[in-house]
Amino acid sequence: MPIDGLIQATLDNGMQVILRPSRRAPVASFWLFYRVGSRNEVLGRTGISHWVEHMLFKGTERYPRGEFDKAVARAGGVFNGMTGPDWTVYFETFPADRIELALQVESDRMANALFDPDETESERTVILSEREGSENSYFYRLQEEVQAAAYLTHSYRNPIIGWPADLHALTRDDLYRHYRTYYTANNAVAVVTGDFEPDAMLAHLQHYFGDLKPGPDAPPLHVQEPASRAERRVLLRGDDPTAYYLQVFQAPPAQHPDFFPFVVLDSVLGGAKGMGLFGGSANNRNNRLYRALVEQQLTVDVGTSFGPTLDAGLLMISATLAPEAVHRQVEDAVWHEIEAVQRDGVAAAEMERAIKQTRAQFAYSSESVTSEAYWLGFSQVVASLAWLDAWSAQLRAVTSDDVQRVARRYLTPDRQTVGYYLPIQQADDPS
Fold first, then answer.
1. Which of 60, 73, 101, 160 has its CA 20 to 30 A from that of 226?
2. Could you tell me whether strands 299-305 and 188-194 are parallel, antiparallel, or unpaired per DSSP bridges?
């Protein structure tokens, strides 16, 4: 995604602004990223960022609950909000002549969200219900347990939605303090893409956000995950008759020199991905794990997951076992493919296909006005705009030696956490 034509500014209160005007369609998208997510949470406060994200939809005096929804519908727009490990974001996409409504609402709830006590308690029930619904899936439970085991100290170990005990204990005042600490102009990145006049948009941003007071400096994070020195294993049992497999490895963060070679390694093993909110994975069956597991009838599916993060993240390999297969067979087959890359590298044709498909998926995930704004803001939070600008060139520069090197460095037994989910009737035979 080339990022030519950008206009950048910083308001006096510290809010960063990124504008990318275009005339492709009479549409504009506004995204407001806050530099806060589950990464910023401590034990006893897990899930607080996700809960605060919900509370900012509960209204202000100017826009009581439900009024913004009606205004968006009347204007023919769409909106949403999300919380990730490194960020919280709200966005609106409108017909271009209505985009000012997004600025009105986001500036209002940056400063004036109500956090009504009754709404807070109602949302506690909603979030706990959401957690309980997810827990109906044993694969979700396995993923949560494996993620927690994969980190000793880093807050990436905690689920974004939070642990149940914390969700029961958090108070309205806890949430409001978190809001006042992190959801501030000096901790925000505003992005506007689409059909607008840059000077007029800068004036609108100054009008709606420029007078908001900056908040306190966000508390610094000092936790650093120690290098893994031991293989970790999780064995989960339950009454779901389907068996699941999950294997994760500690992996490099977005700005590490090994990140792009690792993206290609992920593509070789599990297929190319867009890696964004709007990107999927290529519908191809040429990746090594599909051939080794699904085509050999050990699993009915297999997938990998890896994406850009501020701190060291995880490569996840997941699969649903075929009825007659056992976990050890699946694990051995995965290691066979990993060791082949470590031993032999990747042939030129496979490298070319992996890089080409990854670039294509990335292009698909950033082609609309809405997704373009997402990538600009997301990149500024987890890395930099220069990182985004160099994405395609960095991928093209990856060599087979690079992929072999990162496979040898990161995909080792002492860096892995392996999770087996076993139906109760198989619980005595985890092999």
1. 160
2. unpaired
Sheet with 416-423, strands from edge to edge, namely 232-238, 416-423, 244-251, 313-321, 299-305
Structure tokens at 247: 């294997």
pLDDT one-digit tens code per residue, 303-354: 999 999 999 999 999 999 999 999 999 999 999 999 999 999 999 999 999 9
Residue 11 CA to residue 182 CA, distance in Å, equals: 17
Go through the domains of the chain in sequence order and give each one's CATH number. Answer: 7-209 (3.30.830.10), 232-426 (3.30.830.10)
> Residue 336: what pLDDT?
98
Under-70 pLDDT residues of the chain: 1-2, 278-284, 426-431
Using one digit for the tens of pLDDT, what is the confidence trace for 322-335?
A: 999 999 999 999 99
Residue with tokens 């909603």: 126
For CA atoms 172, 175, 176, 177, the dihedral sign is positive
Calculate what percentage of the chain has a pLDDT beyond 70: 96
Hey, how many other C-beta atoms are within 10 angstroms of the C-beta on 206? Answer: 15
